[in-house]
Amino acid sequence: MADTPVRLTPQQFEQLGKELDELRQRVMADLGEQDRKYIYDIIKTQRGLEVAGRGLLFLGFFPPAWIAGVAALSVSKILDNMEIGHNVMHGQYDWMRDPALNSKMFEWDTAAPAENWRHSHNYIHHTYTNILGKDRDIGYGILRMDEDQEWRPYYLGNPVYAFLLMLLFEWGVWAHDLEIDRQLKGETKWSDYKGVRKRMWHKGIKQALKDYVLFPALTGPMFVSTLVGNATANLIRNIWAFNIIFCGHFPTGVESFTEEETENETKGEWYHRQMLGSANITGGSLFHVMAGNLSHQIEHHLFPDMPARRYPQIAPEVRAICEKYGLPYNTGGLTKQLTSVAAKIFKLALPSRKKPTTPPSSNVRPLKSVAA
């Protein structure tokens, strides 16, 4: 069942915006040596794990060494993508003036080219979070993740598509900017994506050669075991990233919005949409680091350019603000959120009755729940 739509007055929206602006300004003014040391330590750890992992794969004939190598390489790839790449490309460390951590120059260890990702993720997703018809991360052009997405027989395969996307998540992100669904609808043409395709092929081929030709070849007679090891590390990274991201965006209770509802949106209303369109995952410190602190998806959507290590620090304040305004703060353990997401994927594979929405008025902005 959907919760009663949450309503705030224009005055409450304005006050909400001021409180969150003040919170952001206070934290950003406090950035300094501890934040600098943190990201350098994470990078040092990631590189050490990659060197150790690739070194151990030279001993692939010895099963314990192969397993340890795959484990180290998997953690290295997760850190590179989640806690380093994703966060650096959001501009979280631009204040350091280190070219290696510049959001416009950084490139990560995955098939998706950074330039394409910065457009589809940093701009499209974070600007139009959970606005139907605008945010292409709702279903990624493949899945039905919202009841207001028109049902078609194609969506009977929702669970299968989700499973394949999880296994091949690196390549799903790689292909995301082609907007195949829009091309099939005739909204765009293949020729519109010339620059996107060029970047895709350049980065995708380079990544595949590195993981499946160059590094395996360097291990000589261990070529096959190294290739399998690299593929396994990529698979583990894909599964982990998919689950963390889906748990932050699609559990029961996460809200979606229409273009009409968000027209002429104020800063307070934008913050409001981020808070209700996201979900957190509870866990320990190591879990949060491995999640790139996207386990604090609510805080990330509010302040995407704030160093993610600060999200656990501000989470209690954000939760208190939610409680002050009577807003839900969607959080739960990984098992709970995963179960919720899986249930939604299966449920929305079938036709569903559209839930009624509250008509907008001049004094309140209604929101509709997409809880499955």
TrEMBL record:
Stored InterPro entries: FA_desaturase_dom, Fatty_acid_desaturase
| Disordered: annotated segments | 352-372
Organism's domain of life? Bacteria
Q: Which GO terms describe its cellular component?
A: membrane
Please name the GO terms of the biological process aspect recorded for this protein, alphabetically.
Answer: lipid metabolic process
Per the database record, which ranges form the Fatty acid desaturase domain? 65-331
Q: Which GO terms describe its molecular function?
A: oxidoreductase activity, acting on paired donors, with oxidation of a pair of donors resulting in the reduction of molecular oxygen to two molecules of water
Question: Pfam families under this entry?
Answer: FA_desaturase (PF00487)
PANTHER family in alphabetical order: ACYL-COA DELTA-9-DESATURASE, DESB (PTHR19353:SF84), FATTY ACID DESATURASE 2 (PTHR19353)
**What is the official name of this protein in its record?**
Linoleoyl-CoA desaturase
Q: Which organism is it from?
A: Herbihabitans rhizosphaerae
